[in-house]
Amino acid sequence: LFKIVSRRNDGVIVTSLADGKTQFVSGRTNLFSSLDNITIYTSDEPVLLKEVLTAIKKNETSKAVPDVKNDAELKAWMEVILPSYDKEKVHVSDMKKLAKWYTLLNEKNLIEELTSEKKTEEKQEESEEKKADEQEKETSSKEATQEADKSKAKEAKHASAIKEPKIQRKVMQR
To answer: Sheet harboring 2-8: ordered strands across?
Structure first.
């Protein structure tokens, strides 16, 4: 697991959560998946990894993270954490990875950061929706003003078109 420090056009600069080393990773030869994009299959809809990590954190007092070498314990742990997980699609190797990731993220106190980001993102989405609504109102009022200006311009143009022939006739009559 890595934490993105900054982005560049050709890759990202990351810091390893395991050893703290910072390095550049090329986007041309490596694929990246953020924790926001990872889901776990369930019998219904896939569940975001953030939600699963939050559930693990809540149940940590009653059911500790098992040893990754014991497959039976991992399966029992997964039943407690996410009872509706798809038993055909979620393999023991996925459970091991989940347990390792949770342990690493919890040691670095990043579980709270991930869940607070979720709340922050929801607030940001709400504020973006409000801004979009305000912009729509401004746009519609600007459009109404522009339409009124266009109609005035048409009237003025029509009025000047009527006057022009009269002027031309007078000039021709002289």
So the answer is: 2-8, 11-16, 22-26
Contact by Cβ (8 Å): 55, 82 = yes
Q: List all residues 6 or more positions away from 160 whose beta carbon is below 8 Å from its beta carbon.
A: none
At residue 5, the 3 state secondary structure works out as strand
- Of all helices (H) and strands (E), which one includes residue 3? strand 2-8
Alpha helical stretches, state H, the chain: 49-59, 71-81, 92-107, 111-173
Instruction: Give the torsion through C-alpha atoms of 14, 17, 19, 23, to 10 deg.
Output: 0
**Best-predicted range by mean pLDDT (2-6, 62-66, 130-134):** 2-6
DSSP-derived letter for residue 13 is: E
The 10s digit of each residue's pLDDT in 83-115 is 999 999 999 999 999 999 999 998 888 888 877
Straight-line distance from the first to the last Cα atom of the chain, in angstroms, rounded to the nearest whole number: 91
The amino acid at 117: E
Q: Note whether 12 and 28 are within 8 A (CB).
A: no
Please tell me the pTM assigned to this model: 0.62
| Side chain identity, residue 29 | T
Please tell me whether residue 104 adopts helix, strand or coil conformation: helix
